[in-house]
Amino acid sequence: MEIAAKMVKVRKMEMILLLILVIVVAATAANVTYDHRALVIDGKRKVLISGSIHYPRSTPEMWPELIQKSKDGGLDVIETYVFWSGHEPEKNKYNFEGRYDLVKFVKLAAKAGLYVHLRIGPYVCAEWNYGGFPVWLHFVPGIKFRTDNEPFKEEMQRFTTKIVDLMKQEKLYASQGGPIILSQIENEYGNIDSAYGAAAKSYIKWSASMALSLDTGVPWNMCQQADAPDPMINTCNGFYCDQFTPNSNNKPKMWTENWSGWFLGFGDPSPYRPVEDLAFAVARFYQRGGTFQNYYMYYGGTNFDRTSGGPLISTSYDYDAPIDEYGLLRQPKWGHLRDLHKAIKLCEDALIATDPTITSLGSNLEAAVYKTESGSCAAFLANVDTKSDATVTFNGKSYNLPAWSVSILPDCKNVAFNTAKINSATESTAFARQSLKPDGGSSAELGSQWSYIKEPIGISKADAFLKPGLLEQINTTADKSDYLWYSLRTDIKGDETFLDEGSKAVLHIESLGQVVYAFINGKLAGSGHGKQKISLDIPINLVTGTNTIDLLSVTVGLANYGAFFDLVGAGITGPVTLKSAKGGSSIDLASQQWTYQVGLKGEDTGLATVDSSEWVSKSPLPTKQPLIWYKTTFDAPSGSEPVAIDFTGTGKGIAWVNGQSIGRYWPTSIAGNGGCTESCDYRGSYRANKCLKNCGKPSQTLYHVPRSWLKPSGNILVLFEEMGGDPTQISFATKQTGSNLCLTVSQSHPPPVDTWTSDSKISNRNRTRPVLSLKCPISTQVISSIKFASFGTPKGTCGSFTQGHCNSSRSLSLVQKACIGLRSCNVEVSTRVFGEPCRGVVKSLAVEASCS
Ligand code: GAL
C-alpha cells in the first residue's frame, strides 16, 4: 500500500516536472516571422547586425572567444555556412567532431546570447574546396550539379534534411527555443542560373519547396536570387546593398554578405577594405530601409588541411575582417564598427516603426528620416560625393559631412556617429619571432634535429595503373590527394628528327593546373604553375635507350565558383610533345600509354600522422631538392599568444603539426607588382582590387598553428616539400596584441557614442565636445609613454606623426598628465582644454601612446 502511494506521488511529481519543462520550452521558444520592415521575433521587429564566422576555419577552443568578441563588437547574429564536404567526407560517413562540431558551435553562440543564421547551401562557394560539395558527389551516376537533376536533388535533399534534423534534435531552431532564426538554401544561384537554361527555374522552385517542407519553424532565405519564390526571402550580397529591394513588399531588405575585405590568393597581393568605406556601406543600408546586415567575414580564419577552394586560394582566410586570422581585434576596424552598431541600435525604435522619408539636401546629399507617431525620430545624413566635403542644413541646424560619409542622428538632432570620423585607436599588432628551442631544451640548433624521407620520383605504389592517353586529374584522383603522377618510358634511338644536337629536345606540356613538375630520368627538369592553364617548354637532355618522363601534377584547391565550376577540371590534359628547339619536327606523347599514380607513397604510409622507421636523421640534411618529407620536434613558443610558422626558406608543400594539417604552404608564390597602394582612398566605390598591399612579396609566409594543437614540448612538425627548400630556415612567431595606440580626433568629430544611453537617448554627460579615448588592449597594461601629442594641425599617420603649422604647446604635457599610468584615458578635444593655438581653423588632436 505504502509503496503504491509513493509510486502515485512520484508519478505526480514527474507529471508536474514535465509540465514545467513544457512551459519553460514554450516560454523560451521564439516565433520568428517577417514583414516588409524586418525579421519579427516574438511579435517585435528587429534591427539585426550579423557577422560570419565559419566554424571549421578555427578550432573549438577558439570559438568562445571569437563569439564573445563578436558580441562585444555589437553583433546580434552569427552567420555560418554548413560545410558538406567536411561533414560527409565519404558518402554516408558523417563527421560532426572537432572543427566540424556544428552543434557545439551553434550552442556556444546561443550561450553568448547570440542568434544564428545557418546557411546550409549545401552549395556554399565560400572559397572552400569544390564550393563545399564533397568530391564523391561528382561520381554519383547521372548527376548534374545545381540544376533540375534527380540524382543531385536527391543528394541535396538528403544532406539538407540531415542537417535540419540534427538541428531539430538538438532543439536549435528558435521555434524550439534555440538560436537559429533563419536558414539559407542554395547560394547566389541567381548570379549564374542563366547558364543552366530553363531547368534553373524549376530547380530553384524545387529548392524552395524542399527547404520549406523541412519545417524548421523559422524563415528561409536565398541570396542573390531575384526570383526566389515566396515565402523565401531574397537577400543581397555585395560591397554595397543600399540600392537593393526584395522581390515582394512583404519581405524585409536584408544583406547577407557585406564583404569586409576580400580573400587572398597565392600569387596575389593582399586586399584590404578601409573601415570608413565599410561603415559607410552599412550606414547607407540602414539609411535606405535595411534592417539586417551581415559582415562576410567578421572573422575569416584559416583554410586548414586541403579545404581551400580555388584554384589557388591561400591558406589564410583573414579577409581583412574586424577580427584577424589569429583571433585578435583588428583596430580601428573592429572599434569603429562597434561604435557604428551602437549608433544604429540607438535608432532601432524609429527604424522598425516606419519606412524612411528620403529627401535631397543638395547634389549627392541625402537625408533619410524615420519618424514615428509616438514621437521618436532618427535621421541619417549622407554625402555620397566621392571628393567634396559638405556642410548641410537639416532641421535648421548645420552639419559637416565629409565626402563619402553618413552621419547618424538617433534623435534627429545630435550626431552620434559619422562613418568617416574614427573615434577608435589604431592598435598595431605584430609578430614576435621566437627562436625555437628544439625539444629537450638542448642548445643544439633546431635544424640539426631534422630528419627526412625522400619521396620516390615517379611511380612507387602498387596501385599505379596504365591508361592510354592523358587523364583529367579530378576524375582520376577523386581529390583524395593534391598529387597525380603521369609517367612514361620512351625509347630514343638517337636519330629522331625532333632531337637536337647532343640528344637535346624540348618537352612541351599543357595543363589545366595548378602546378607541374617535370622529371627527366629522375632529375627535375622544369616546373610551372597557373590557375587554369599552364604551358611549358622545357629544354631537356635525353639519352640513347630508355628515358623516363615523370610529370607530377598538383592541384591547389578545386574551383568553387561559377556556372559548371565542378567541370573545369585540372591536370595535364595535353598536348604533351617532344620537339626540336629549332621548330619543325615533334612527336606526340599525349596519346601514348601512361602510368598513373594517385597520391604519394608518403601519404599512403601516413608519414604526417603515424611514426615510421624510415626517417633518416644522419647529416647532411638534403636541402633544396624536390620531393622530400621533413620532420622535427619542437617546444611550443612560450606565452599564450597565437602562434604562426614562418615558412620562408621553403618552397611549397603541406605541413602538419602533431598530425593536424595546418594547410598548404607556398612562400615562394610571389604577388604581382601592380596595383598596390599604402594608403587607399576610402572615398568612392570599393572593388576587390581597389586597395591592395604586399605587391612583389610572397603572398603568404606566415601560417597559423592553433594553440590547442600544441603541447609544451615534444611537438612534431612534418612537412612535405615539393619544390625544394631549406626547412632549417623555418621560424616561429607569436602574434602580439598591439601595444602602440594611435588616434587623431578633430574638433568636428562627434563625441564618443558611449555617451548616449540607449533607453532615453539622453546623454549622461555633456555630449557636445569630441573626446580622444585611449585604452590599452591588455587588461594588465597601462599607458607608459606618450610618443606624440599635438593639438593643432598635426600631419602624418601612426608612427610618423609630425606637428603642423599650428600646435598647442600644452599638448604633450596635458595628454601625459591625463593618461600615463592608467589603462584608459579620455582627453577632451577642445580649446577649452588646450587653449587656442590658431584661430579660424578646425583643429585635431593626434596622439601616439604605448602600453606596457
Ligand atoms: C560570394 C559567395 C561567398 C564567397 C564570396 C567571396 O559570391 O557567396 O561564398 O565566395 O563571394 O568571398
Automatic annotation (TrEMBL):
Pfam families per the record? BetaGal_gal-bd, GHD, Glyco_hydro_35, SUEL_Lectin
Subcellular compartments: Secreted, Extracellular space, Apoplast
Alphabetical keyword list: Apoplast, Glycosidase, Hydrolase, Secreted, Signal
UniProt superkingdom: Eukaryota
Q: Which GO terms describe its molecular function?
A: beta-galactosidase activity; carbohydrate binding
Q: What class of enzyme is it?
A: hydrolase
Q: Please report the name of this protein according to its UniProt entry.
A: Beta-galactosidase
User: What is any one of the record's Gene Ontology cellular component terms?
Assistant: apoplast
Q: What is the lineage of its organism?
A: Eukaryota, Viridiplantae, Streptophyta, Embryophyta, Tracheophyta
Signal sequence range: 1-29
What are its E.C. numbers? 3.2.1.23
